[in-house]
Amino acid sequence: MLKSIIRYSVAAALLLQVTSCSGQAQVNEQKKELVMVDLVKRLIEQAHYDPGNFDDEFSKEVFAEYFKQADVFKRFFTQEDIDKLKKYETDIDDEFRNYDFNFFNASSEIYVRNVARAEKYCDEILEKPFDFNVKESYELDPEKRPFPKDEKDLYESWRLSLKYEVITRLASLIEAQEKKTFDPEKKDDNPKTMVELEAEAREKVAKRYKDWFHELNKLERADRMSDYMNALIAVLDPHSNYFPPKEKEDFDISFSGQLQGIGATLTQRDGYITVANIVPGSPSWKQGELAVDDKILKVAQGDEEAVDVVDMRLDKAVRLVRGKKGTKVRLTVRKVDGSEKEISIIRDLVIIEETYAKSAVVTDSISGRKTGYIYLPSFYANFDDPNGRSSSEDMKKEVLKLKEQGVSGIVLDLRGNGGGSLQDAIEIAGLFIDQGPVVQVKARYGKPQVYGDPSPGAIYDGPLAIMINPLSASASEILAAAMQDHHRAIIVGSTSFGKGTVQRFFNLDDMARGYDDVKPLGALKLTIQKFYRINGGATQLKGVTPDITLPDMYAHLDVGERDLDHPMPWTEIEKATYQPLPNQTLFGQLDASSIKRQAADTIFKLQDENALRLKAQRDRSLMPLDMASFRLEKQNAEKAAKRYSKIDDVVMPLFVVPLNSDLNSADTGRREIVKRWVKNLRTDNYLYETTRILSDWNTLGVARKE
Fold this sequence. Notes:
Shape: globular
CATH architecture of the largest domain: Alpha-Beta Complex
CATH topology of the largest domain: 2-enoyl-CoA Hydratase, Chain A, domain 1
Radius of gyration: 28 Å
Number of helices: 22
CATH class of the largest domain: Alpha Beta
């Protein structure tokens, strides 16, 4: 029904509007925009959990949001510009319904003109030396700065911004020179004057902005349309987004942890597509000729003619380099020594090992107790390949491997895990409980649905701790909350992010049948459901509160759902039917023991102090621009930071060993990644305390369901 409605309405809109255009390119561009807007509008109306009303209030919110999307650092629009566009402030809802683009066209025209104006300002300002004796300051936080009033105010804002960047580099150059020992017997070994150092710093800033504007000027109307579409969608909730084709491709790569290509991370420097990193174990790594800092001049597919990629947009060049497994790509590169070489690479499936679950055996060198440790960076899944890797299957393998090692408990680390596949979170919960509900999911209409352990029996029923922090979100919170409500695992760390909504991707190409000439259109990610704990409460806004709280560097920073714009409210539904394990008293005892240890632990004290310092540092965003005050501010910040700089270097009494299956892997890239990862675990004080919590659990005894 939805697809037929879309096809009919788009056709009607096109008949009325596209025929008035002149030129085929213009016709195709407008046609694409009309199709995309129609799909987005109707998907919001029919699929979003709470679409609200397309009215004047909606229009006002979109108007304000658009400038956040298009000019977050307030470098291009002035308040004068915004006031000129105010006449559209209550019209956007009508334009959205009627397939009009008056506001977008007007704002886009101003934006393009303002980018050119800003580039001119930048060139003029950086032509002359700055006076770093003048007492003035610059506000780093754009939220604390209003939009510049007019052109004069905008110029001044750019001047202060550039002066800040130059003084930052100049202070570093001065410090480096002060630390250097000069040889008076060498004629050319003399310190540079302040004038020379200032010119060098200014030149570096000028080069950076030259590259930045160079890329900015390559942006097309479609890029600005993405900002407009996201402004329309962002007022619904923080997690609904429009993804242009390239961004959707990148999202899929990060979600599945794999791509088909050569395994090289590319960046753009001085107009050249440059190799920034080679993925261990990838086709580039195995072939061996491509190296970091190589400049890619041309790209050829198989035996076809090469395409010049110098000065090409990075995303377009990346699409040429990527390709299907088994196909050949020929890269003409310029090496660091200036020589040029053609390198042929057969594309393959590139596995990004850092995105997958890893485990190790952690032995307390004092007590000798062995604990299993699993790090899960995301709830990844490959929806395009039913046989592809999934976090639930990988977790099952890691748990079984740790059981074979005879560990006395398992730590599951979800710190920094932003979520992913809901189904995988449910299946992972099933690894640790015999049966019972895991999460409740409510759609826009109807009653909540209870989703439970899909298979009876637990593969591990011993002591279990789950580590979370303020960056643990969504599926991480589903799993942690379920294990907490069942009293199956003790939750350790700090309160999680607070994202209690479920999103779904809608591929716009699949829905726009009959409009192949305007594809690709990208995808729309919409919030379609809210999830609830089995105890009836939501994790939305409130997050998951740990059973045992540990100091956290993010604890005092504004990083949660409640700090985002347009978050959905916290709500509550009836609890599901379940029987928790009788572990409540035990968990209270574990908390009391941990509190005593933390009180005597100097590292935890320093970590808490450091969190407060980071909060104060973030709040102190007004920076002086005279050299004396700037250097004093910098020195004070560095002095404070120095006190805490060694926190993460303290080695805990832990002996950490990766599993033999990883150490003996035929994939040398994977072996190197695992070795580096294991080395860092020995300095993780949070992990050490969590292993001690599980040690207490073993001492006090494992409670089981009666």
